[in-house]
Design brief:
alpha/beta; Udp-n-acetylmuramoylalanyl-d-glutamate--2,6- Diaminopimelate Ligase, Chain: A, domain 1; Protein-Tyrosine Phosphatase, Chain A; nine-stranded mixed β-sheet; 27 helices; 30% helix; binds pyridoxal-5'-phosphate; acid-amino acid ligase activity; alanine racemase activity
Length: 823
C-alpha cells in the first residue's frame, strides 16, 4: 500500500497545505504510541468523546511524522516541512481512504458480524484456509469504526482472500463498515444480547447488522438467527443467496447430528448430495456453533469434505490473550506461541514495547509456516528494525536460509535449527533483565521454551487482566467533564495487582499522574521505567533523599513536614521543587485545616523552593448517599482553602478531591483532576451498579489432594470441621499466609470448583484449606479452584470476612505470583 499524499488528497477532495505532497504514504496511524515508520506514516487526528487527536500532533511531529489529516480550521503553522490535509471529519476521511483502497482488489472478502464468536470464526477460517489462500485478516478483534479501516488498509496484491470482522454498538455504524469492507461473502455468527444498549430493540439491532450483507453474493447464517427476522431480504441485494444451517431439513446445510464425547464432538452435516462428518477437539456449545459456521463456509468455497474433516480435527483454540509471565533472572516473558503470522507478530511486538520495565527487548521466533519465498521474512526484518529490537533468536531452517535478509537490517544474536537444539544449548545465564517475546508457530512447541524461562513458584496465582484495567479506566473517563485529568492510585502494590505492571499500562494509556503511599513504592516505579509524575502521600524526613533522587513529588500535610522539607531543599540548594498540599476538610487523617491557613499562607508566599503542583483533600464518605451533605461541606471547606492558597501563591495549581466513588456520584466535584483507585481494579465501592466494570483480579489455586471421609469424622486443626455424611474433601493450596483469611473457615466462605461453589470445611490453615466437594461430580487432584474472580466477586469474599474489598485485595501475600494477561 503505497499512495502519494497527492493521491490521498484527491480521494478526500481535501485542501492540502504546504510541504511535499508527493511524499509516499505506507502506514495510516491513529495512535501516537504506535508509530514505527514515521517517514512513511499519515497521522489522522481523530476526535472521540474521550480524546482529541489534534492534541497529540506536536508529539507525533516530534517523532518524525510529516503528513497529517486534520479538521478544517486547525492551526498548522509552526510545523516546518509538514503537510496537512484539511477535512470536515477525520474519521470519515480514514474510512473513505480505506474504502477506496478496498475497491482495488477483486479477490473474495469474507465479512463477519454477529454478537458472539466473530473473532473465533475469523481466526478459525484463517486456520482452515491459509494453506489454500494467502489471507489478510483483521488483527485481533479490530472490528470498530477505526479498527476496520486499519484492517482493510493491509490488503495488497499478494493476498487472494480477506477476512474482516465488523462490530457495532449503535445504529448508523454498519452502513459505514459495509462501505469499507464491501464483503462478497457474508457470515452471521450467533446473535446474542451483547451491545443492546445502543439499540431500541432486538429487531433494530438485527436490521442494522444485516446491512453488512447488502451487496454480498452469499450469506451464511444459522436458521434461527434469521428466521426471527422477516424482512431479511429487504436489506440485501436481490440475487442474494441466503444459505442457512440448522436442524430442519429446509436448511441448506442440515445438521444431522451433534455427538459430544468427553474430549471432542462429532458433527454430521448434510449439504446437497454430500455428507460431511467432522470431529472437533472441543465440546462446548459455542465452539460447536462456530465450527459449524466455518464448515459451511468451506463447503460453500468448494473445499472437499475429506479436506474439511482433516483440517477441522486440527483446530486450535483461539487464545487471543497474550500471557505475561515472570521469568527467570528478572525477565518478563510474553508467551505468544499459538500461531505465527505477520498480523499476530505485530500485535505481540506492540505488547513487548509496552514492557517499559526492561530497556532490553528480545524476540525469539520460529519459521513462519506456509511462507513461500523470502517476502514475509523481509517484512519481519523491517518490523524488527523499526522497533529497535536488538536481540533476536531464530529457530528453524527457513530462518537459516534467509539469514541475510535479517542481518541486513538487524543483528541476529543466535540461530537454531529447531526447538530441540535451542533447549540443548539453553543456559539460564543468557537471559537477564530483559523482556522476551516468544513467537512461534504451534508445530515448534515453544511451550517447552516457556517452561525453561518461567520462574517456578507455588501454584496459587493471581491473574491480573490488563484489558479490564483499561476498560475500567475508560469507563470512568467517560464520566469526566471535559479536560479533567486522572491520577491513578497505585499505592499498596496497586491494590495488590502489581504496581510496576499496572503503572506501565496506565502510562501507556496516557494517564496524567500516579500516586503511591510511600517513597519506596515510587522508587520501584522509577526502576520500572515510569516517567510520569508521581505523588508520594505518606512522607517523612527519612524519605526526602530518596524522593529528590528519584524525582518524586511529596504530599506536604503538616507544618512540621513542610518546614523539614523546606530545610532539606535549602541544604541541598534545590529550587522550585514540585510538591502537593493536602487539606484536611473533614476526614481528620492528614492535612492542613482551614484554621491553619493564616499561618500557612505567609510560608507559601515567601518561598521559591517549592512549586505547588496541586492542592487536594480527601472525602470521608463519598460512597455513602446518607453522607452527601457532609461531602458537600467538605468540598466547600476545601474550596475556601484553595482560594486563599491561590491568592498567596499567585499561580494556578491542580485541584482534586474525588476518589472512585465520588467521580460518578458527585460529578460536580471533579475540579481539574480525580484520583482513581479501587474502580480501576474493578470494584464499585458504592455498589451502585451504574458502571459496567470488569473483573481485574482472579485469585486461583489448585487441589493438592482428594479423600473420601466417613460420616461423623473430623477435619483439620482442633477437629473444628465435622462431616455429617460420607464426604469428599479436597485440600487446596492456599491458607491465611496467602491472604485467605481465617474468617472464611467453618463453611462461612466458599470457593469455586467445576462451575459450583464449594464450602470451606474446618479451619483455614497457614498454607492449606479443606473444602467439601461432595456435591460436585468429577473433581480431580490438580483441578483449578477460583478463590475470587468472575464467579465469586471479591466483594462477596469481603462480606464473608466482615470487611471491605480493599482489605482483601491488598492482603494477598506477595508470595502469590501475579500473572498478567492481555486479551
Ligand atoms: C486511596 C486513595 C484514593 C483512592 O480511593 P478509591 O476509593 O480507591 O478510589 C484517593 N485519594 C487518596 C488520598 C487515597 O489515599
Amino acid at each position: 500500500m503505497r499512495y502519494s499524499l497527492n493521491h490521498i488528497a484527491a480521494i478526500l477532495s481535501a485542501k492540502a497545505v504546504t510541504g511535499d505532497t508527493g511524499v509516499v504514504v505506507e502506514h495510516l496511524v491513529t495512535d501516537s504510541r504506535r508509530i514505527f515508520f514515521p517517514a512513511a506514516s499519515l497521522f489522522f487526528a481523530l476526535e472521540t468523546n474521550r480524546r482529541d487527536g489534534h492534541l497529540f500532533i506536536p508529539e507525533v511531529y516530534e517523532r518524525g511524522v510529516r503528513c497529517f489529516v486534520v479538521r478544517n480550521g486547525f492551526d498548522a503553522t509552526n510545523y516546518a516541512g509538514a503537510s496537512f490535509l484539511f477535512v470536515h471529519d477525520t474519521l470519515a476521511a480514514l474510512q473513505s481512504i480505506a474504502a477506496d483502497h478496498r475497491r482495488q482488489f477483486n479477490y473474495p472478502v469474507i465479512g463477519i458480524t454477529g454478537s458472539n464468536g466473530k473473532t473465533i470464526v475469523k481466526e478459525w477460517l484463517y486456520q482452515l484456509l491459509n494453506t489454500d489462500y494467502n489471507i489478510v485478516r483483521s488483527p485481533r478483534s479490530y472490528n470498530s469504526q477505526v479498527g476496520v479501516p486499519l484492517s482493510v488498509w493491509q490488503m495488497n496484491m499478494q493476498h487472494n482472500m480477506a477476512i474482516f470482522e465488523a462490530g457495532i454498538s449503535t445504529t448508523g455504524e454498519m452502513d459505514k463498515l459495509e462501505k469499507i469492507i464491501q464483503p462478497t461473502i457474508g457470515v452471521l455468527t450467533n446473535l446474542g444480547a451483547a451491545h443492546n444498549e445502543g439499540f431500541e430493540n432486538e429487531t433494530q439491532k438485527l436490521q442494522e447488522k444485516l446491512l453488512l450483507f447488502r451487496h454480498c453474493g452469499v450469506v451464511i447464517a444459522r436458521d434461527i438467527d434469521v428466521a426471527a427476522y422477516v424482512g431479511f431480504a429487504k436489506y440485501i441485494n436481490s440475487p442474494l443467496k441466503l444459505l442457512t444451517w440448522g436442524n430442519k431439513a429446509s436448511n441448506t446445510f442440515v445438521v444431522a447430528s451433534v455427538q459430544r464425547n468427553q474430549f471432542d464432538t462429532v458433527i454430521i452435516l448434510a449439504y446437497k448430495t454430500e455428507r460431511l462428518t467432522v470431529t472437533i477437539p472441543f465440546t462446548d456449545h459455542a465452539s460447536v456453533e462456530n465450527a459449524i459456521t466455518c464448515a459451511c463456509v468451506l463447503l460453500q468455497l468448494g473445499v472437499s469434505t475429506a479436506t474439511i474433516a482433516r483440517r477441522m480435527l486440527q483446530l486450535q483454540p483461539v487464545d487471543m490473550r497474550l500471557q505475561l509471565l515472570h521469568g527467570i533472572n528478572n525477565c518478563v516473558v510474553i508467551n505468544d506461541s499459538y500461531s505465527f503470522d505477520i498480523t499476530s507478530l505485530s500485535v505481540g511486538l506492540d505488547f513487548l514495547l509496552q514492557q517499559q520495565q526492561h530497556a532490553r527487548k528480545t524476540v525469539v521466533m520460529s519459521d513462519i509456516p506456509g511462507a513461500s519465498g523470502d517476502t514475509m521474512y523481509r517484512e519481519i526484518a523491517d518490523m524488527l528494525y523499526a522497533r529497535n529490537i536488538e536481540k533476536i533468536i531464530t529457530i528453524g531452517t527457513q530462518w537459516l536460509t534467509y539469514k541475510n535478509v535479517l542481518t541486513a537490517k538487524v543483528a541476529v544474536t543466535q540461530q537454531y535449527l529447531d526447538t530441540a537444539s535451542f533447549i540443548r544449548q539453553f543456559s539460564a545465564n543468557h537471559f537477564r533483565n530483559e523482556a522476551l517475546l516468544l513467537k512461534g508457530a504451534r508445530v515448534f512447541g515453544f511451550e517447552k521454551i516457556v517452561a525453561l524461562l518461567e520462574k517456578k513458584v507455588h501454584q496459587t496465582v493471581m491473574e491480573v487482566n490488563l484489558n479490564a484495567v483499561v476498560h475500567n479506566l475508560n469507563e470512568y473517563k467517560a464520566r469526566l467533564q471535559k479536560g479533567v485529568k486522572v491520577m491513578g492510585m497505585v499505592k499498596a502494590f496497586a491494590y495488590g495487582s502489581g504496581s510496576a505492571e499496572v503503572a506501565s499500562l496506565l502510562q501507556f494509556h496516557k494517564i496524567d499522574y500516579l500516586a503511591v503511599a510511600y517513597a519506596d513504592e515510587g522508587v520501584e516505579l522509577r526502576k520500572a521505567g515510569i516517567h510520569l509524575p508521581i505523588m508520594v502521600m505518606n512522607v517523612d524526613e527519612a524519605a526526602f533523599e530518596t524522593i529528590a533522587e528519584h524525582n518524586l513529588e511529596p504530599e506536604l500535610f503538616s507544618f512540621n513536614i513542610l518546614q523539614l522539607f523546606l530545610q532539606f531543599l535549602e541544604r541541598n540548594a534545590l529550587q522550585q521543587y514540585p510538591v502537593h498540599l493536602k487539606i484536611d476538610s473533614g476526614m481528620h487523617r492528614l492535612g492542613f485545616e482551614e484554621k491553619d491557613m493564616p499561618a500557612l499562607l505567609p510560608l507559601l508566599r515567601a518561598n521559591n523552593r517549592i512549586v505547588v503542583q496541586s492542592v487536594f483533600s480527601h472525602l470521608a464518605s463519598s460512597e455513602d448517599a446518607g453522607d452527601d451533605a457532609f461531602t458537600t461541606q467538605q468540598s466547600q471547606a476545601y474550596e475556601r482553602c484553595c482560594v486563599l492558597i491561590k491568592e498567596a501563591l499567585g499561580y494556578r495549581f491542580i485541584m482534586h478531591l474525588s476518589n472512585s466513588a465520588a467521580i460518578f456520584r458527585r460529578p460536580e466535584l471533579q475540579y481539574n483532576m480525580v484520583r482513581l483507585g479501587i474502580g480501576l481494579y474493578g470494584v464499585d465501592s458504592s455498589n451502585a451498579h451504574q458502571l459496567s466494570l470488569q473483573t481485574v483480579a482472579t485469585l486461583k489455586t489448585t487441589i493438592a489432594q482428594l479423600r473420601n471421609v466417613a460420616a461423623g469424622d473430623t477435619i483439620g486443626y482442633n477437629r473444628r470441621g465435622k462431616t455429617e455424611r460420607a464426604s469428599v474433601i479436597a485440600t487446596i493450596r492456599i491458607g491465611y499466609a496467602d491472604g485467605f483469611r481465617r474468617h472464611l473457615g467453618y463453611g462461612k466462605g466458599k470457593v469455586f470448583v467445576h462451575g459450583k461453589a464449594a464450602p470451606v470445611i474446618g479451619t483455614v490453615a497457614m498454607d492449606m484449606t479443606m473444602i467439601d466437594v461432595t456435591d460436585i461430580p468429577g473433581v480431580k487432584e490438580g483441578d483449578e479452584v477460583e478463590i475470587f474472580g468472575k464467579n465469586i466477586p471479591v466483594q462477596q469474599v469481603a462480606q464473608w470476612c466482615n470487611t471491605i474489598p480493599y482489605e482483601i485485595l491488598t492482603g494477598i501475600n506477595q508470595r502469590v505470583k501475579r500473572i498478567y494477561v492481555e486479551e
